[in-house]
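User: Study the chain.
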Amino acid sequence: MSADLWAALCLVLVLEGLLLFAAPGAWRRMAERLQDLPERSLRLYGGGMVVAGLIALQFVR
């Protein structure tokens, strides 16, 4: 894997950690709400995030 990919994965960990560190209660409530959503909605939301991330990556590069 390239160094850029490893750097991106490390930044994901940093951002996830910051959310847990700054607002653990809000993160827990969000996780509980996610369990109530249908699988189709979660897939659509995840797919949207992938597309948005790829588009943003094109603008950054």
About this structure: The chain has three helices and no strands. The radius of gyration is 14 Å.
